[in-house]
Design brief:
By secondary structure, the chain is α/β, with parallel strands linked by helices. The chain has one domain: 3-Layer(aba) Sandwich (Rossmann fold), CATH 3.40.50.300. The chain has 9 helices and 11 strands. The strands form 3 sheets. A 6-stranded mixed beta sheet has the order 5-6-7-3-8-9, sandwiched between helices. The model has no long low-confidence stretch (mean pLDDT 90).
Length: 271
């Protein structure tokens, strides 16, 4: 797949929970070989839009179409799982299940009945664990791992699906700096290998560093799409987050932070 090729396109997509509209008329394209970061204030619809791209959340309007013209809403679960993998914010806590078994769950779409027919499965699982740095944990129980290790297990499960599109919903949240860095490096490697990656991030500096394309959502609407430098401007972010924001270009991306607080002078008291 050539870099820049649109692996998936959403057009005029609207999403709701019951009668409450969450995302309005969204247009977004995921490119092969590129990381697309969805950013915006809490409650802006980032995670809902990401789920909408998988057809796990059915749109109330618009279309989500793959590169071959297939409509995501018309595909069955197994067909979707061969095309697109998603790392959600939260996961069930498996009891008594090993890392290898959990990563193996990613192969279900490639198996026939009674888990037959997936000749390449064991080798794919091994490669997915190696790529995420958990090969030495293969026989450990997932429930006994740290948060950062478990996150890499679930990411390895996505890799084991062998899809051309991978979506990640806040994969670095609650992780310490080391694990955040490791997850982002894996994500960047995926894109460099030709995968189309969509990722929801709260950390704007991480988005500026890792993303090729940035989509900014505010109150359920896409207000800007483009490169990090085009989208993550002080003016635009100040309006979106309703707080003064400073943006400075640095060697590895952008430095983004709210305007420094003015400290109050101590009140002098008469002796």
């Amino acid at each position: 797949m050539n870099p820049g090729f649109q692996a998936l396109r959403a057009t005029d997509v609207s999403l709701a929970y019951g009668r409450e509209a969450i995302v309005h008329d969204a247009d977004i394209a995921l490119r092969a070989g590129a990381v697309t970061a969805l950013v915006g204030p809490n409650g802006s619809g980032k995670s809902t839009l990401l789920r909408g791209l998988t057809a796990l959340h059915r749109p109330t309007g618009g279309t989500v179409v793959f590169a071959d013209g297939a409509d995501a809403s018309a595909l069955g679960e197994r067909d979707l799982a061969r095309r697109i993998a998603m790392l959600a914010q939260s996961h069930p806590e498996p009891s008594g299940v090993s890392v290898r078994e959990v990563v193996g769950y990613g192969r279900f779409a490639h198996r026939g009945r009674f888990r037959a027919g997936d000749v390449d499965g064991p080798a794919v699982v091994d490669r997915a664990m190696a790529a995420t740095g958990i090969g030495d944990l293969a026989d450990h129980a997932v429930a006994q791992l740290s948060g950062g290790q478990r996150q890499r297990v679930w990411l390895a499960t996505c890799l084991a699906q062998q899809t051309g599109i991978v979506l990640l919903d806040e994969p670095t949240t609650y992780l310490d700096l080391r694990y955040q860095r490791e997850i982002l490096e894996i994500v960047r490697d995926l894109a460099d290998e030709g995968v189309a990656v969509g990722i929801v991030l709260h950390d704007l500096e991480q988005a500026a560093e890792i993303a090729d394309d940035v989509v900014l959502l505010v109150r359920g609407r896409i207000v800007a799409t483009g490169s990090p430098e085009e989208v993550l401007t002080a003016e635009r972010l100040s309006a979106a987050y309703e707080v003064p924001v400073e943006v400075e270009a640095v060697a590895d991306g952008l430095r983004i932070r709210p305007t420094r607080l003015r400290r109050r002078l101590p009140v002098s008291r008469a002796a």
